[in-house]
TrEMBL record:
One protein family per Pfam: YjiS-like
Protein species of origin: Paragemmobacter amnigenus
UniProt protein name: DUF1127 domain-containing protein
Organismal lineage: Bacteria, Pseudomonadati, Pseudomonadota, Alphaproteobacteria, Rhodobacterales
Residue ranges occupied by any YjiS-like domain in the UniProt entry: 24-55
Amino acid sequence: MSSRTAYAALPVTLPPLSRALVSLALAVARWEDRRRTRSALARLDSHILADIGLTSAAAQVECRKPFWRD
């Protein structure tokens, strides 16, 4: 589920502070997902990367991105 989808599903009647906290929690969850995914990507062998259509160089570029970058 993307954060945009989850944010759109929030009730309109939610107080502003609650909406902000939920948005923050969703951002942290996205960041953690990116961190875990990039960590797993860094551990893949080149033949597995080829199976998913990535070169080792492309995987390294992705793995070097900070967690907050999409």
